[in-house]
Amino acid sequence: MSTAPQADAGGGRDRDTEGRARNARPRDGLGRPLPYGTEGVARQPEGVTRTPGETVAEAQSLLDAGKPFHAHEVFEDAWKSGPAEERALWRGLAQLAVGLTHAARGNATGGARLLRRGAAGIEEWRSAAGQDEPYGIGVLGLCRWARELADAVERDGVAVDAGVWAPRLRGAGGTADRA
């Protein structure tokens, strides 16, 4: 059964096939709604169960493509479907992706706040779980990246390029080579 949103021809709210309210407007690469009839970026399917390795690989691909909003949806699927003891990790990663989304949209305050919240959540999870590199994710470097970006968007107050600022999830570095 599909949950793809459908525009309501009667002028009411858009609904999915189960009748839940869901905006059917196309979206750009940062998840912003576009006018109906405009060509947008394909949405990530919701509710997909992936292995942790598949989650990290898919999210990294989306981050590298400058689509952190879409990467957030991949992390959200892992957060909702994964084991309870890992939910804080996946939630923190989703918050980092949304923080990058806001920073790329020019929302310095929201971006910085979510980047710091995600980093704190991941560090708290790491401390409780005793894992520095779950699934190859370099959490310490990733948290440094998040704070570095939060500081930059607060200092500069301008939108960042999401592809340029995409983090490296695997490995200890956390940061991309930024030109």
UniProtKB/TrEMBL annotation:
| Gene3D superfamilies, alphabetized | TTHA0068-like
Where are the stretches annotated Disordered?
1-54
Q: Which domain of life is it from?
A: Bacteria
- Regions of biased composition (Basic and acidic residues) lie at 11-30
Any matching Pfam family: DUF309
- Fetch the PANTHER family from UniProt: EXPRESSED PROTEIN (PTHR34796:SF1)
The name on file for this protein is: DUF309 domain-containing protein
Q: Native species of this protein? A: Streptomyces himalayensis subsp. himalayensis
